[in-house]
Write a structure and sequence with these properties.
Layout (H helix, E strand, L loop, with lengths): L1 E8 L6 E3 L5 E4 L3 E9 L2 E5 L13 E5 L3 E8 L15 E4 L1 E9 L10 E9 L7 E11 L7 E5 L2 E5 L10 E8 L20 E7 L5 E4 L11 E9 L12 E4 L6 E9 L5 E8 L13 E9 L7 E6 L6 E7 L6 E11 L2 E7 L3 E2 L2 E7 L2 E7 L5 E10 L4 E7 L3 E5 L7 E10 L9 E4 L3 E3 L12 E7 L4 E6 L10 E9 L7 E6 L6 E5 L6 E9 L11 E3 L4 E2 L4 E2 L15 E2 L1 E9 L5 E5 L20 E13 L2 E13 L9
Length: 652
């Protein structure tokens, strides 16, 4: 493989430019050669005014230089212990420098991660020394396993291949698909890509393991199907070889091949099923002479294994059977056909067909929509599924699917709709009915609204801390989000991160504000949810949080003289206070009153005696616990209070 790197110096004197990409690939055992060329042309030289002033446009002159170029390289390939790459360096040259990078690759070089080489070209210009680095990624890939073979043996295929030429391989991966693809790997395209339709069916360990019997995980392969394979060697770091060439084989059609498991009547005890199969055309009649007998076996479920015989036919051309008395509404069924021949005067089992199940349709209801899905397990390939819906008189086709799911939308909630699925498929081999058509059971369901409205954006329209009220507002949902919103729930928590509880329910869907007033506290976080007519509640939107503005003011005088005016010592104004702790002390240092009631309401009497205290000045210490959004905060108040009585005595 030959690539070239060309380096040249641009005329603006700024940088070196890589002309050709150099991401490279080499198969182990081949020689990678890359020619490197560097060329220099013109560069700018700058000079200053004689006075040493600033560089001016008129001072720029273009000169051609014959600079000496130096080419060097570094990288892992140059220091490998086994068959390292060759690059004689440094390399010198005027205007052009050339050297060849050569690497004789071997299996020891195979790895998942590419090798990196870095090439450096620099000149010796005395004014502006230019340098350029360019990297190259080199991936070493193991060759594909050679001479793959595939030979049918009964209901299995025996695979074989040569050992990988790289004994560092630790095993092989076997891929299979129905029918030939014609895969040709691109450069560095290792393994078997998914777009080919191949699937990994087995990973075998051991460099010397060169065979595998594909019996479809003991379920057997299907006669008449063209099975194709590719083999890949793999390594302990995850590296893979190229894929082998495709090799294909078809089982002899010496057993019955099931083609139909189709529901003909849906019922709980009177359901019926049509079973069809293709007769064996490659049967060895000398080994297995007539008369013949087919035995029809049935098991419950998509992957049923508990088979019981449900029917018999006695002619090799009699390949149809109708099974009745079934519960096709709630159960799928799996069938297989056994062929018996007369050997030494008695029936002997020649072999069974592969298993095949009916299609079982399930329906999930949601708002104005029914989501259909179906399951099946059959040996042929279905490429299209047609969805039929009952229109009141007959079933009409309403859509197609290439998967096992379909969504029918725009329906009326509460109204029942009935469906069945019809599959269309084929075997890759010849000699079978094509297309293979089968029906599921009929299934019915009604859509209903189980979709909650969207989350609402919550905001505060107004917030009046002094008035102790907050107005919560939210956006009204549109018809896309929900067309049947019936009410809103307003949720509240007094602290961020705390548990929310319903504060209010607004039963008018046209209202999008709520005024909350609370004398104790409005601090907290709020959000609103929408609830539709079926009780589906939407997710919470973004919460909004507000805080209190606590106030606690104590007077400096009161007159407990029983005239009904200013008879009690209490705070004014105050708001958003949880509780307090106050002590009132006489001028002699004696505690005469204490309370935890935020209202205090001291009547001028002594706690100790219950008697009126004399007029005078008293000292108080008060701890106030105020309510904030982030919790209770305490602050301390200290001061004097003057107790006045008739005569304004101050003899305490």
């Amino acid at each position: 493989m030959l690539n070239e790197l060309q380096f040249y110096q641009s005329t603006d004197g700024i940088n070196w430019v890589l002309v050709q990409s150099v991401d490279s690939l080499s198969t182990s055992g081949t020689t990678l050669k890359i020619n490197l060329n560097g060329n220099t042309y013109l560069k700018l030289s700058y000079s200053k005014q004689p006075s040493g002033g600033e560089l001016a446009l008129d001072d720029i002159k273009i000169f051609a230089f014959k600079n000496l170029l130096t080419l060097t390289a570094t990288g892992a390939p140059l220091i490998l212990p086994i068959s390292p790459a060759q690059f004689n360096q440094p390399v010198y040259g005027y205007r052009t420098v050339t050297q060849q990078f050569e690497w004789q690759t071997v299996c020891d070089h195979v790895r998942l991660r590419p090798y990196q080489m870095v090439f450096k070209v620099e000149d010796d210009d005395p004014f502006v020394n230019l340098t350029n680095l360019q990297s190259m990624q080199i991936t070493i890939v193991a060759p594909a396993p050679l001479n793959p073979t595939a030979a049918p043996i009964g209901n299995a295929i025996q695979l074989g291949w040569d050992q990988s030429v790289c004994n560092q391989a630790i095993g092989y991966k076997i891929y299979r698909r129905n029918g030939f693809y014609g895969f040709v790997p691109g450069p560095c395209e290792t393994g078997v890509p998914a777009y080919t339709g191949y699937s990994l069916i087995k990973t075998v360990s051991g460099f010397t393991t060169t065979s595998f019997l594909d019996n479809n995980n003991n379920a057997g392969l299907s006669p008449g199907t063209d099975y194709c394979y590719m083999i890949v060697a793999y390594f302990d770091d995850g590296a893979e070889s190229y894929a082998s060439v495709e090799v294909c084989a078809t089982l002899k059609k010496d057993l019955p091949v099931i083609t139909n498991v189709s529901v003909t009547t849906t019922g709980t005890g009177n359901g019926t099923m049509f079973i069809g199969w293709s007769k064996p055309t490659d049967l060895d009649t000398n080994q297995y002479p007539a008369p013949y007998e087919y035995r029809v076996l049935r098991a419950d479920g998509i992957n049923g294994t508990a088979f019981t015989q449900v029917g018999t036919t006695f002619n090799l051309n009699d390949t149809l059977f109708n099974d009745s008395g079934l519960n096709t509404i709630s159960t799928a069924y799996t069938y297989k056909i056994e062929l018996y021949a007369t050997v030494s005067g008695s029936f002997q089992l020649v072999g069974p067909s592969q298993n095949a199940s009916s299609i079982f349709l399930s329906i999930a209801s949601t708002d104005e929509r029914l989501n259909l899905s179906w399951n099946l397990n059959v040996p042929w390939q279905n490429d299209t599924y047609t969805v039929y819906r009952f229109n009141g008189a007959a079933f009409d086709s309403i859509g197609f699917s290439t998967t096992t799911a379909f969504s029918d939308s725009g329906l009326i909630n509460g109204q029942q709709y009935c469906y069945f699925i019809q599959s269309s498929g084929s075997y890759s081999g010849t000699g079978f009915i094509d297309p293979i058509i089968n029906n599921s059971q009929e299934a019915c369901a009604a859509p209903f609204d189980n979709v909650p409205p969207c989350a609402l954006n919550t905001d505060t329209a107004s917030y009046d801390c002094i008035a102790r009220k907050v107005t919560i507002s939210w956006n009204l949902p549109d018809s896309v989000c929900a067309d049947d919103v019936a009410s809103y729930n307003l949720y509240y928590t007094p602290t961020p991160g705390g548990p929310y509880s319903i504060l209010a329910t607004i039963n008018d869907n046209a209202i999008n504000t709520y005024e909350y007033t609370n004398a104790v506290s409005i601090a907290g976080c709020y959000y609103v949810t929408a609830v539709d007519s079926n009780g589906n509640e939407g997710a919470p939107g973004m919460a909004v949080c507000v805080d209190n503005c606590p106030v606690y003011v104590l007077p400096n005088v009161f007159t407990p003289d029983g005239n009904g005016i200013n008879d009690l010592f209490h705070p004014f104004p105050y708001r958003y206070v949880k509780d307090i702790s106050i002590k009132i002390i006489s001028r002699w240092g004696l505690e005469v009153f204490s309370s935890t009631d935020p209202d205090i309401n001291w009547n001028g009497k002594s706690d100790n005696t219950g008697e009126d205290l004399p007029a005078g000045v008293y000292y108080f210490i008060c701890t106030v616990n105020e309510i904030f959004l982030d919790g209770i905060k305490s602050r301390e108040l200290k001061g004097f209070i003057q107790l006045l009585r008739s005569g304004n005595g101050t003899n305490n």
